[in-house]
TrEMBL record:
UniProt entry tagged with the keyword Aminoacyl-tRNA synthetase: no
Molecular function terms, GO-annotated: kinase activity
Record keywords, A-Z: Kinase, Transferase
Name by which UniProt lists this protein: Sugar kinase of the NBD/HSP70 family, may contain an N-terminal HTH domain
Length: 301
């Protein structure tokens, strides 16, 4: 049996055909459609092209999920899909195929628990650094969804009480995209979202770039420190495109150590958590999309 797994991002739409063991049989990437009409057309074409191979469909997005109605909401990057059932989007011609939906954070965390950086640990948190911060908490191999299936909304945590609106939220202050953009703006680089250029400046020791980067890593470390005080996990896994750069993990670790050093009481009670790079990239996160599908179909949650 094989399944179509779709990971909808703000920039790209990744989809794959996976067998029940999680083996990726096909993997492709498309630009994310920007209108409801083109979004429908894209998904229906993907299904039609692979109809003879698939037994089910699982779709994730950076959004909250209405499992009963198979819909996403609070999806800021793709507002045109908010509240619309995926059954309606996929059309009546696909009504006989089992469809499931999942949040990006839950899918990514599940992938890490299944065979990634959070496998075989008693407790861990995934932080995926991108446009905002997504991820989740897992204890004893189980994703913690919360009483209302809404746990893991890291990006909405307020980390600056005196700053009004979204500028005081984690999704602004811990955004890798915002960090890259700020560096490129200061450098007057034409493409403000050019990650390699921004990291080139960081690695070259550019003072302005280093200041912005170090402040970003400090914000991530502060978020981790607060989470560790609350749940005391064994391991943090850092994901997202920038996590592949060793300097990111190293700087976050150093910032975390500095924060703990400022609080003698914390030094006495906190056990320093492991801080590692997540295993799954955006491309292989579709494994988590499959695993969440299997959980739902098998009524395991």
């Amino acid at each position: 049996m094989a399944y179509l797994c779709v990971d909808i991002g703000g920039v790209s739409l990744k989809y794959g055909i996976l067998d029940s063991s999680g083996k990726i049989l096909l993997l492709k990437v498309l630009p994310t459609p920007k209108t409801l009409g083109t979004f429908k057309d894209a998904l229906r074409k993907i299904i039609n092209d692979n109809r003879q191979r698939i037994n089910g469909i699982s779709i994730s997005a950076p959004a909250m999920v209405d499992y009963e109605n198979l819909a996403f909401y609070n999806c800021e990057g793709l507002p045109f899909i908010n509240g619309i059932s995926m059954e309606d989007i996929l059309g009546p011609e696909n009504s006989k195929i089992i469809v499931k939906v999942e949040s990006e954070g839950r899918a990514a965390t599940t992938a890490e628990v299944w065979d990634g950086a959070l496998k075989d640990v008693d407790s861990g948190i995934l932080l995926t650094l991108g446009n905002s911060v997504t991820g989740g908490l897992a204890i004893d191999g189980n994703y913690i969804a919360g009483a209302h299936q809404k746990a893991g909304l890291f990006s909405l945590i307020r980390d600056e009480l005196n700053v009004p609106g979204s500028q005081g939220l984690v999704r602004s202050n811990c955004s890798a995209i915002n960090m890259i953009r700020a560096i490129n703006v200061v450098d007057k680089h034409d493409d403000v979202y050019d990650g390699p250029h921004a990291f080139g400046l960081i690695e070259a020791g550019d003072k302005a770039a280093l200041s912005i980067f170090n402040n970003f890593c400090k914000n991530i470390a502060q978020l981790m420190f607060n989470m560790q005080l609350l749940v005391d996990v064994q391991r943090f896994a850092i994901g997202g495109g920038i996590s592949s750069n060793e300097l990111v993990i190293k700087t976050i670790k150093n910032a975390y150590t500095d924060i703990v050093a400022e609080f003698p009481q914390a030094q006495q009670v906190l056990v320093y958590p492991e801080i590692v790079t997540a295993k799954h990239s955006r491309e292989t996160m579709i494994k988590g999309v499959l695993y969440c599908y299997m959980e739902q179909v098998n009524n395991e949650r």
